[in-house]
Amino acid sequence: MSLFILYLLMINGYGCLVMWHDKRRAKQGGWRVSERHLFTAALAGGGAGIWAGMQWFRHKTTRPAFRIGIPCIMVVNGLMTILCLYWLW
């Protein structure tokens, strides 16, 4: 159980860091992080970190795919986590 919590902390920290990195690259005009990579991080359990990064850095907050997609991924991930924990219990 503690490994699972550690994993969630790490993947969400990574998601937030990737949003910061992409925002910084957007301002500098450099190579950007692909949207596929951002959504993959969210699907891997980092949706809360991606969402927090969106809010803190004001990045991709007007794009419907992110404004709607990330919260939906968070809900699905939460439900799957609850079902898995129930099954393991």
TrEMBL record:
<keyword id="KW-0472">Membrane</keyword>
<feature type="transmembrane region" description="Helical">
    <location>
        <begin position="37"/>
        <end position="56"/>
    </location>
</feature>
<protein>
    <submittedName>
        <fullName>Uncharacterized membrane protein YsdA (DUF1294 family)</fullName>
    </submittedName>
</protein>
<keyword id="KW-0812">Transmembrane</keyword>
<dbReference type="InterPro" id="IPR010718">
    <property type="entry name" value="DUF1294"/>
</dbReference>
<keyword id="KW-1133">Transmembrane helix</keyword>
<dbReference type="Pfam" id="PF06961">
    <property type="entry name" value="DUF1294"/>
</dbReference>
<feature type="transmembrane region" description="Helical">
    <location>
        <begin position="68"/>
        <end position="88"/>
    </location>
</feature>
